Amino acid sequence: MGQEGGRRAGTQDVCGAVCLAAAARAVCDEMDATRREVASRAQLVYDRLCAPGTGIVPTTTAQVGDDRLPGLVSVLVCGVDSQTLVLKLDEAGYEVSAGSACSSGAAEPSHVLVAMGIPRKEAAGSLRISFDERVSREDLVGFCDALLTLVDACA
Which of 19, 102, 144, 154 is labelled catalytic? Predict the structure, then answer.
């Protein structure tokens, strides 16, 4: 039968539990400020990428901070296949995804975007850009510049 009534034998990791509690407390203390900063960085990305004339539009009209994950940017690159952009951005040192996380690796446009009413042809140009507080504003500006350069080259 073993210890703990046969459910999970062994010594409890008290030190690990105390460390986890301390880490959770530290994260919670900074969560609101971090959320605001990351949302501000997402807005910077939207403002740069979706400026008039870029051929890039957001996939939603909800504003950053309105029930949205702060470090998630979703855009449509008109007339350019997202898989091409993913590969080119990877070569430039940036990791992004095409479509939704639940269908990564699929060649089809995101079923989520199609369900939102975005035509399949437009949804085929979707990019999902995610980041957290460790990604600096400067890195995001560099990413935006790289993507805009690629979009210009593909046009």
Answer: 102
